[in-house]
Amino acid sequence: MNGDIRKALIIALAGVKETIDEAQKSLNRLDPYFFHYGDDDLGDSEKDLDYERYYGDLQQVFLSLCAMMEAYGFNTLLTDNKAKWEESNGGRNPEDIEPVPDYDCLHSHQLNLLVTYYYAVVALVGGASALKGKTQEDAVEEEAFRGLSRRLESLGHYTKKLGAEPKSEPELHKLARAWLSTEYVDYVDRPKISRPIKGFEPDFGLLDSHVAVELKFVDKEEELKVAFSGILEDANGYKPGQWKRFISLIYQTEAFTTRDIFQSELDRSGINDWRAIVVTGGGGRKVRVKKTPAKTRADAASTPKSK
């Protein structure tokens, strides 16, 4: 395969990967119909719309793969892909989507199969990462980073399912640790990042994947500025070394901001190696009420009476 064809194929692969990510997001939107989060008002029309959106995204992945396979002569893969698609009725067979209770997520056999075909094409081209100067290890780490990001995006659903309402950053950290430490064997809590003057401690990380995560708990809109300033300071301390990828997870108790807005602020500040994840969930800081001590009898007796 000559260089020009390979470059064109790499571009096509990047486009297919985007459609796969969109299909995964659509699949995640079906969670409430399999896991009870207390949303009893989800109507049939909304449910049908969510399913059709998923099937449409799934078909887009299939058609993109078919077009690429046909254009570059991967005929065996193309024939097999079309046959499997027909067998699954375009992913519409009832048994295609299965809940995975232990991981609080859904598994689609057809989407998983399309992802397998995608990586088969990647392997045939010698690995798409090679053209970009990345090793196979980099590609594996990047996929782990994407997987963790998807899990963290569902943190709001997880807390809602548990009926948990964190009241502080430590409580949020405790919830995240209980959830993720059982899923990732390379999970480490508060890893230390040494620096000559000041050391830094992300809330947790995945050691083998070199991903560090910083949690921010936001209960008021003005706390966003404090969280953002903290991330700027962290970013200067967490320069790529042992930890190559970084995630800032903003847990807000109301919809104060969006991921796109927060990410754009990070990008404008030159923090290009950090990914922002914004989730909205229940909870809120405890309001401390200062109590006025009641007067004792002795106090009352010593108080001079007005004439």
Please give a structural write-up:
With 307 residues, the protein is α/β, with parallel strands linked by helices. The protein is built from eleven helices and seven strands. It has helices at 3-28, 44-71, 75-87, 109-124, 128-131, 136-153, 155-162, 169-180, 223-237, 259-268, 297-302; strands spanning 97-100, 105-108, 187-189, 204-206, 211-218, 245-252, 274-280. A five-stranded mixed sheet has the order 3-4-5-6-7, with helices on both faces. It has a two-stranded antiparallel ribbon with strand order 1-2. The chain is globular and about 60 Å long. The relative contact order is 0.09. Residues 37-42 and 128-133 have low confidence and may be disordered.
Blueprint of the fold:
Elements (H helix, E strand, L loop, with lengths): L2 H26 L15 H28 L3 H13 L9 E4 L4 E4 H16 L3 H4 L4 H18 L1 H8 L6 H12 L6 E3 L14 E3 L4 E8 L4 H15 L7 E8 L6 H10 L5 E7 L16 H6 L5
Parallel strand pairs: 5-6, 6-7
Antiparallel strand pairs: 1-2, 3-4, 4-5
Helix pairs in contact: 1-2, 1-4, 2-3, 2-4, 3-4
